[in-house]
Amino acid sequence: MARLKPLHEPLYLTAVFRQVGEAYLTPRNTELKYSREENPTVLNLENKLAKLEGADNALAFNSGIAAIATLYFSFLEAGDEAVLSMEGYGTTIELARLIGRRFGVKIRLAYPRAEDIVEEINERTKLVLIETMTNPTLKVIDVREVAKRCREVETILVVDNTFVTPLLYKPLKDGANFVVHSLTKYIAGHNDVLGGAILWNGEFIHDLWNWRRRLGGIIQPFDAWMIERGMRTLEVRFERQSKNAQAIAEFLSEHPKVKEVHYPGLEDDPYHEIAKKLFERDLYGGVVSFDVGNESNAIVFLRSIKKIFPSPSLGGVESIVTYPVKSAARYINEEQREALGITEGLIRLSVGLEPLDELLEDLDKALEVVK
Ligand code: PLP
Question: Which of 84, 89, 131, 187 should be mutated for ligand 1, with most atoms under 8 A from CB?
Answer without folding.
Answer: 89
